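Task 17 of the worksheet. Students: predict the tertiary structure of the chain below and write it out as structure tokens. Keep your answer in the requested format; marks are given for formatting as well as content.
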Amino acid sequence: MIWAGRSTPTPLTLSLSKGQARPLKAPSIEQMLPRPTPHCNGAGMTELTPRLARLKFRAWHRGTREADYMIGCFFDRFHAEWSDEEIDFFERMIEEEDVDIIGWALGTIAVPEEWRGAMVERMMKLDYVEIPR
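Model answer:
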């Protein structure tokens, strides 16, 4: 087979500046695989019902690392012991703004009447957040 008048292919290159070029490399399989989110208890989403898997994803993908750890670790630590009503409550609560949820947990913002209860009180203890180093 002949490519561009040659018997061997010329590797693709990326021009960096005048006269300089470097061969393009395909990413390795490891680089293409998604990186795991640092969950507090290491539980994956495969053991969860679809509803809980969606909640776990939403708890761990809030927009800031602080919110991810606070809400994601809270979910990881306690979701297995929640009743259907508590799951409903958590599902509604995470629709609130992150700054409000974090403020309630830290005690810097008063908890509105509709959110007061055992779950927010438990969240205020903050003993569930584990930050990997």
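Marker's comment: The longest helix spans residues 65-78. The chain has a mean pLDDT of 80.
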